[in-house]
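Listing S7. Sequence submitted for prediction.
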Amino acid sequence: MNRLSLNKKKRLVLILKELDSLMVAFSGGVDSAFLLAVAHEVLKKNIVAVTAVSQIHPEREKKKAIEFVKNYGIKHIILQSKEMSLPAFVANRKDRCYVCKKNLFGKLIKIASGIGIKYITHGANVDDLEDFRPGHTAAREMGVIAPMIDAGLTKDDIRLLSKEMNLETWNKPAQACLATRIPYGTSITVKALEMVDQAENVLISLGFNACRVRKYENTARIEVNPEEIESISDKKNRETIVEKFRKIGFSRVAVDLEGYVLISA
């Protein structure tokens, strides 16, 4: 085990010990799963996990999040976040993530206040500080803490420590909400989100777990790991994908030769 990563985890534990109760914004991804697991070790029953659900979150991720929390016996709240009711979110400008997180954290603050929890945290890590993440601005403005940043934990640290803790999420592909598949400036619709979700489920059913389907009008642009591009272009896979994507509503299907990348839009 990497000693530097272990020391960072120790710092995280010390930070969490200073909190008498904690609400974790839990998406089920690598970062929030690690944070929740460590918080459970430290605070025992004085934590609650809250998972947002709506049209922008794949149903498959909700199911995984519920199962993860159930295994730890942690109190779990499923929150209807209702981003699609926000005109500023649907407009899909570059502040979309800020609008989304402001809405989410506002709801979490109300829930926490109602059940007597003082601190709310999200799973940001040090690497996130290098990206364009307007949601972090919303978190800071609303007093939502990021203890993994304070502890100096990077994504690599979190994956390494998660593996050591036998968390099944340790090698899970990076996640982002379905709205990120729609380019900025194009209004987000429920239909578009459903098309993307269904298309990604097709790819996952074929074994492409790290994938994105980005929607440009009626064109689907597929991203998979670079080493899987040849496989996705295999005749059988290609024919299956084109047939099913057209049934979903896409008129054209393209593969991004650069491969899978996690970007905001």
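Caption to Listing S7: primary sequence and predicted structure tokens for the chain studied. Residues 178-255 form one domain. The longest strand covers residues 47-53.
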